[in-house]
Amino acid sequence: MPKIPTQEELEQRKRVQINAETVTNAQSNDFPHHWPGEDHSWNLDYFKSQFRVKFEKNERYDAEFSLIGLDTSVANAFRRILIAEIPTLAIETVFINQNTSIIADEVLAHRMGLVPLTASRKGLDWMSWYREPTEEDRGSGQPMDYNACQLRLEAACTWLDDDAINRANRGETDPNKLYKNHSIYAKDLVWVPSGQQNDKFEEPLRPTNPDILLVKMRPGQKIELFVQAIKGIGQDHAKFSPVATASYRLMPTIDITKPILGQDAKKFARCFPKGVIELEKVTEEEASEKKELEGKEGELKAVVKNPMRDTVSRECLRHPEFKDKVKLGRVRDHFIFKVESTGQWDSDLLFLESVKLLKVKCERVKRGLDAMMG
Amino acid sequence: MSSQNYSYNPSGQQASAPVTAESGRSVEYTCGDCDASVQLKRGEPIRCRNCGHRVLYKQRTNRMVQFEAR
Ligand SMILES: [Zn+2]
After folding, report:
1. Which structural domain, as residue segments, surrounds residue A194?
2. Is the ipTM here above 0.95?
3. Read out DSSP for A192-230?
4. How high is the pLDDT of residue A134?
């Protein structure tokens, strides 16, 4: 007769233990033939009943949410797809007519490639892949309105006025008081819409962050160029990655096994980031119920308020007075995702897109297996 | 010293060599001292019209160059 595990035991099974020097119980164990007599074969209905999504923060360029009840392999697949496989538009080719600044052409081109762009979602969805010209197919690889966007950059630095040069000779060094156009920013890249782009893009294509410094110039220096932005994926080059950050961490847990009181409680709270541990007065009820709290009524006691904010620094384990009173850990199937979009997608839509892409991949594998068996 | 002595004549031909169509075109240089732009035609002395400095810099080509933003 198989033993049916208690809820408490199930919780302990998926608890990663974080000790002073070691991390234990890190591997998952919810698979068939691990626990005698228990069936852990994967089941869609069971997964549906257990799986939960909880949003902590959902802003356009910054989202934080929890996925509870799934395996690391799946959570990690989402993370990797977010970073490397969701397409965005980025500057790929730079045509330089004139560049007399001190930044070398190839360095300037590289800098511009890394500038994140943004536009209306509808327009970006409409854009298709640009294909490089091939030897076999003459005339292929033409940039068209549906696969390439053009932006221009034209700038020349001049003296601010006729007297500026004299002020410079007298020792003035503030560039704002001497030169015009001495700093060229991402916002100076101007979109030149062509063909259908005029209708398809509801908002103009522009750099997400207008104040990225591209070049500094001095009087007489000039830049004249245009660039082509195409769709690509992060696997090809990091500039195509739609996220600045796409990462997850496991939910931290703090279990206070013996009460921490008075001055110790204050010190204990200081071992954690603000808001994780709070101090509460021991109530009459608690004092009468628990032996350790007898006669401690009204004293301050450390309680866990918000373990999610903990950085798991293990500072509390360094102090001998807390060593045997607290257990640190993480929940193996509670993933706290943080997704920061670089501008082309809303952060929450990015995650949904990663789910969609994983689904497409699975279907491809399924078709491959069917073809192999049939 | 007359500036005429410094006219550039690499082939050793006389200054009165046959005039080609090229000779009519002027090229823009930048003075090495006062930063003024100097238009020079073929055979003219290499000298800034503004300050008389004899070092002139050739300007970068206007021809388009293509780069990959990688
Ligand atoms: Zn000069």
Report:
1. 87-241
2. no
3. E--TTHHHH-SS--EESSTT-EEEE--TT-EEEEEEEEE
4. 87
